[in-house]
Amino acid sequence: MRFKLFALSLLATSSLATAEPTPKEQLLQPPPTAQHYTISSTAGKHGDIWGWKTDDGKLAHRMSMSLRGWITETDQLTTLGADGRPTTIAVRGYTDSGDATEDFSVDANGIAHWKTTVDEGSAPLGNKRYSAYGGPWLASAIDIDALVAAGDKGVDLLPGGRASISIGAATEIDGPSGKEAVKLAYITGAGFSPSAVWLDKDNRYFGNAGVISLLPAGYEAVGPKLKEVQDATEAVMVRDTAKKFLSPANRTPTLVDNVLLFDSIAGRYLPGRAVLIADGKVQKVGAAGSIKLPKGAVKIDGRGKTLLPGLWDSHLHIGGSDWNLLQNVATGITNYRSPGSMIDESLSIIKRRAAGELIAPDGKVAVIIDRKDPLAAQGALTVSSAEEAVEAVRKIKEAGLSGAKFYTSMTPEWIAPAAAEAHKLGLHVSGHIPAGMRPIEAVRAGYDEITHINFIMMQAMPQHVVDKANTAARLEGPAKYGKDVDLDSAEMRAFYAELSERKTIIDPTLVVWEGSLTSDGSEVPAAYAPFAAISPPAVSRSWKIGGYPLFDGLTRDDFKASYAKMVGVVGRLYKSGVRIVAGTDGYGLELVRELELYQQAGLTNAEAIQTATIVPARMTGMDDRFGSIEAGKMASLILVEGDASKDMAALRRISTVFLDGYRLNADELRKASGFSGMPE
After folding, report:
1. Do 57 and 77 reside in the same domain of the chain?
2. Is residue 144 part of a domain?
3. What pTM does this model have?
4. 177-208 residue pLDDT tens
5. Which alpha helices (DSSP H) does 280-436 contain, by range?
6. Domain for residue 272, yes or no?
């Protein structure tokens, strides 16, 4: 349902118009008496949503949001039947991904009909409730109220799924008019994990809190407190799950015998190997049958399987959901680098993981620094001068975290002094490329790493695109001009060579833009297709994509040609000696697709997997413990069905995850993290 999916819309594109969307000027205008909510984060206000009842009794909503330059302007009219369920829904306008048009109606025979930019269908309404694909977020308040009214029975949904809600204890907040109570509730069935929502004293929808909050106007200041309560509640919820998996029975010695082993150091596969795991570490590696089974050990027959180091996602933003960390482990990610998380959340995750109260990968965290600006990154440390940027770097070091990530609205002149301070303190420097800079200038100013392939493409973009790289131009520029870039020109070859000479690391996240630039229908993008059948219906539906909206007379083939150049850049960087680390900037389950794209770029199977094993381990300085299967290293490994040397997709078919020596059944992990089976 929409109340679950609005957070996901910040990470992924959604749809492409089949006709021109309704322009902003033609959308509904809220009356002065309309209910008013705001969209905000610690970086500031990002938008508004209004709700009111029209003269003819319809529910009306209007949403206006600018999030780091991505624009949403939508409205919605809803007609309610006698039983309080919507009988018509009409959404108009556009999001950062194009046309938002959506229509739902129930005919005289009780048949529901719906059409969005990604799907259409019909079915008997019965006792079900239509789950809208998009529209203003506040419009879902009536759906949440319906869940409350349904109680333990829950609500069956169209096009599919079932949701229910549980209501917890009250929390006192300081509202504009004084003290009042709100209640934390959790919705289940609409997403991978329970999703938090706040109710008022009468158990009606109050708001949502998080990195991005949707709260009544005037209540923005209570967002951080509500998020803190949510985080503490969720920590208790996941603790019991962690205790179940991280039990002494799952840490007994394990012998995996006669298995195909990936040697990430040499970049080769070794058949017929045996690996003994005990006391949290790899104790021995030898030929099949050469290691004696210790007393009380579990033996796993490795025939037909491949044993690999646990995977790294080098662009995994931790925080916001403890459940997502569990899903990361279920999909083979035992290590991460977070290129931008909030300090308090990160420290909590690190502490609880060490205490065995949270199942999560192990890794390193950077914090985002951005200029105070309407386009600043949510969750960033925002600064107004070079001196404040240096102080922000010191704050990251004092917190014990590992890196500073500069963002697109940073003043270019502030980068060098802030990066110099970071290096002085032993911090890793990465980031987006600030508007007005080209990537090579950022590297010369002190970047150790550049994140996202579109910012690499900025090296060859026209100046007017570079100057607006903190807006949608950061994608639209490469989408428009990328197809015409000569990747083998003297200028580009010199660019690759200097990055290599300076030992710059590139985190391409090709998977972020694949679906949006190359999709021309209502298909689920390749990154998500293997998981569609085992995910909640609302999540699978949210993955359907029509592609980024076309503009300036460009065609989908133009976008595909530009994306092909992005893939080509990765291959040329690699061949020039530039280190590549694999990251998703998503759920994490997109990681294997990222590796498949590296193969398309020209890397071998082994070279691609190295970008998600030993290379990031070295980047973070954790290669003494992780990144390869060697005696003495931590036993964070994955055992997969099939021969991974011949089929990269085998990395999705995980049978056992070893996390710091704990032997975790992958089927049970998947079930606990919201999947109903093994991906295709």
Report:
1. yes
2. yes
3. 0.93
4. 999 999 999 999 989 999 999 999 999 999 99
5. 322-330, 343-354, 386-398, 412-424
6. yes
